[in-house]
Model the fold of this input.
Amino acid sequence: MKLIVGLGNPGSQYKNTRHNAGFMAVDELFENFDFQPFKKYDKFKAEISEGKIGNEKVILLKPQTFMNLSGESVSSVMGFYKIPLQDLIIIHDDVDIPSGKLRVRQEGSAGGHNGIKSIIANIGSQGFARVRLGVQPMAPFKGALEDYVLGKFTDDEKKVFKPILGEVPSVVETILEQGVGYAMNRFNS
Done:
């Protein structure tokens, strides 16, 4: 069984914000493959949907802990379902990647992303696959990074972000069928 986690913040005030790109990506997977409706599980501090991508059984997870505590939800689900590290994929926003681009990564540091920091701290490893969705400012942004990522996409950003959301099902399917290395070679530009 594979665990695919989309990072974001719960609550309607965060819907369609840059920091919720991971939630949007998981919703895209839900729409494109055979999944049961999301259900809220208090014991996991998450919304979960189970289904299949190709021949793989998959759990889609949207932590409901707020970004900085995402690791609590991820580690509890991994422990309960006995999911090994190599079967974990995290999908998240990345301000270091230009808007309209995505990158697949085998493993690595948190790179300043608080959700990834929390996951690394809670599972004790940085050796998990990621799909990083570019949300870098398209125009100079004066202000705190937190204000930027918690802001809603502009119309211009939506135009370049929507196509990479549409790529997510193909990217994830490739990771599951042919491995992270193959997906990196195919999708990283």
Remarks:
- The mean pLDDT is 96.
- The longest helix spans residues 155-178.
- The chain has one domain: 2-187.
